[in-house]
Amino acid sequence: MDDLYREVIIEHYKNPSYKGKLDPHDISFADNNPLCGDHIQIDLRVDADGKVAEARFDGHGCAISQASADLLVESIIGKPLEEVKQLNKDSVLEMLGIDLGPVRLKCALLSLKVLKAGVYGLGEASDELVE
Amino acid sequence: MLNVKEIRGDFPIFERETRPGVRLVYLDSTATSQKPVSVIEAMNDFYRRSNANIHRGVHTLAEEATALYEDAREKIAKFINAPSARQIIYTRNTTESINLVAYTWARANLKPGDLVILTEMEHHSNLVPWHMLATERGIELDFIPVAEDGLLDMDAYRALLARTPKLVAFTHMSNVLGTINPAAEIIRLARDVGAVTLVDAAQSVPHIAVDAQALGADFLAFSAHKMCGPTGIGVLYGKVELLEAMPPFLGGGDMIKEVKLRSFRPNSIPYKFEAGTPAIAEAVGFGAAVDYLTKIGMTNIAAHEHEITEYALERLEEIPGVKVFGPSADKKGGVASFTLDGVHPHDVAQILDRDGIAVRAGHHCAQPLHEKFGIPASTRASFYLYSMKEEVDALVNGIYTVKKMFG
Questions:
Q1: Could B377 and A14 be called an inter-chain contact, meaning their C-beta atoms sit closer than 8 Å?
Q2: Is residue A130 in some structural domain?
Q3: Residue that wins the pLDDT comparison between A125 and A115
Q4: Other C-beta atoms within 10 Å of A4: how many?
Q5: A45, A124, B125, B259: which could form a disulfide with A53 (CB 3.0–4.6 Å)?
Q6: Domain membership flag for residue A49
Q7: Using a CB-CB distance cutoff of 8 angstroms, which residues of chain A are in contact with residue B341?
Q8: Which portions of chain B are predicted below pLDDT 70?
Q9: Phi, then psi, of B61 in degrees rounded to 5
Q10: Distance from B406 to chain A by nearest Cα, in Å?
Q11: Do A36 and B351 touch (CB under 8 A)?
Q12: What is the model's pLDDT at position A2?
């Protein structure tokens, strides 16, 4: 349980490195978790080689959702979009370094869902994106 | 005053630990209450001894089951002082009761442009059915505003009434703020302009003495599971002349007097609204819950909750960074919704759970109300007849633990 609130998570929640918005941006997507009202927006700038040049997230929510967004955004900078498309649930859980029950898993995966919906250019974020 | 130690002995769930060595501190009764052994046993006995389908059967079990099902209806009628048991319609829950009114009375009586007045503190169950009807029928919705102190703005309500609404549907007690609204006055003013009234009594009937006749409500909806009864059963109370004039709700067995190949004649009330095999064991459990609450006394329960709530508000408000929403203890029921600076309610609830403390985090099915107060979510502790001051202390200690972790 204390694991859930590992220092790294509290630290990323309280002092996120990649919080904010990018204007202009090439990709932007936002979604909510209706259960708890968490909100995440992710903005990306993509360079000529199709790599993520810059990325930011914005929003509000619980420590798990905000810390995972910060870690996720940090991890994709410099990566090709094709590689970003391959990220899944396990990639996020590995970054967080914790096990999560079904309810909190939704908090942790909201940012990945938003990111992938944006990168794929979808109109709506679906749970299948993060299976 | 209640003997809370003795009352807790009636609830088997309090014997359990949420993990080894951690006792359950249940502060989530507004979501659903715990169940006394008498309710659990009544349902158990029904399945062990009397189980059969109700109505029309002539065998012993069918007669017993029917009698138990209808006895429960009588008990519930008495509990809210309804003039007759046929005004008690069994539904699945408060949500279905409100939807029943929206699907039958409202569709038969409301035209495009007709005004329905709700309040800003409604649960989604008393918002969405009306949104759906607005889309389908073009009815207008307007809302009695909630002031910063968590009370309804009655002057604004009087102004809204000048637009002659057809229906005023409102919560008797807010599930987030705890506010006990002046239901009798709201109903009297509505009646003066000829509006029908619907009271969402999901939180009031379990916690304070509610007299349907004294209130004068046309419709009143509540659920068993919030008042020591089982899930899956609720009630719509209505005035006889309204219920009789309404078209049926769901079609099927039991709601008919006569069926031909191409037509049917509906049954009389309350059966007209009870299609299909209902929740029979649950009705029996509901009756046992009403017996239990009656034995303890609603006035005693309300007084006990008031004492706990007063203590909880006092203790919570002394914690730096905690903001409690809603009016003072004398104007509300046993609910304390709060925010803690810098920590999301989900994190608060999760960390409290480590100490066995069950609270709810989120928008509690009242998203517009949270928007009004400018917060995405809140943490809610709620109390019932079995709640103890020691549990409030555990909550307060837990919040200090949260603060330390996020410090």
A1: no
A2: no
A3: A115
A4: 18
A5: A45
A6: yes
A7: none
A8: none
A9: -65, -40
A10: 7
A11: no
A12: 57
Catalytic residue among B85, B134, B365, B396: B365
Q: Which domain holds residue A115?
A: 2-120
Residue of chain A whose alpha carbon sits nearest to that of B406: A10
A16 contact residues in B (CB cutoff 8 A): none
State the pLDDT confidence band at A1, using cuts at 50, 70 and 90. Answer: very low
Structural domains of chain B, ranges and CATH numbers in brackets: 40-295 (3.40.640.10), 298-406 (3.90.1150.10)
Nearest CA in chain B to A59: B376
In contact, B330 and B309? CB cutoff 8 Å: no
Cβ contact, residue pair B376, A60, below 8 Å? yes
Q: Which helix (H) or strand (E) holds B90?
A: strand B88-91
* Residues of chain B neighbouring A14 (CB-CB closer than 8 A): 342, 406
> Residues B39, B290: contact at Cβ < 8 Å?
no
Question: A62 to chain B nearest CA, in Å?
Answer: 5
Region A61-85: mean pLDDT is: 94
Torsion B221-B222-B223-B224 (CA) sign: negative
For B112-268, where are the E strands, in sequence order?
A: 115-119, 140-144, 167-171, 196-200, 219-223, 234-238, 256-259, 264-266
Asked if B228 is an active-site residue, the reply is: no
The Cα B184–Cα B197 span in angstroms is 11
Residue found under tokens 């202390």: B393
What total number of domains does chain A contain? 1
Of residues A57, A32, A43, the one with CA closest to residue B370: A32
Query: Residues B200, B122: contact at Cβ < 8 Å?
Result: yes
Consecutive H or E run containing B378: strand B378-382
Kindly state whether residue A128 falls inside one of the protein's structural domains: no
Question: What interface predicted TM-score (ipTM) does this complex get?
Answer: 0.81
Q: What is the CATH number of the domain that holds A91?
A: 3.90.1010.10
Which residues in chain B are closer than 8 Å to A60, comparing Cβ atoms? Answer: 344, 376
Both tokens of B110, joined, read: 């409301």
Q: Is residue A127 part of a domain?
A: no
Shortest distance, CA A46 to any CA of chain B (angstroms): 32
Q: Are A43 and A28 in contact (CB under 8 A)?
A: yes
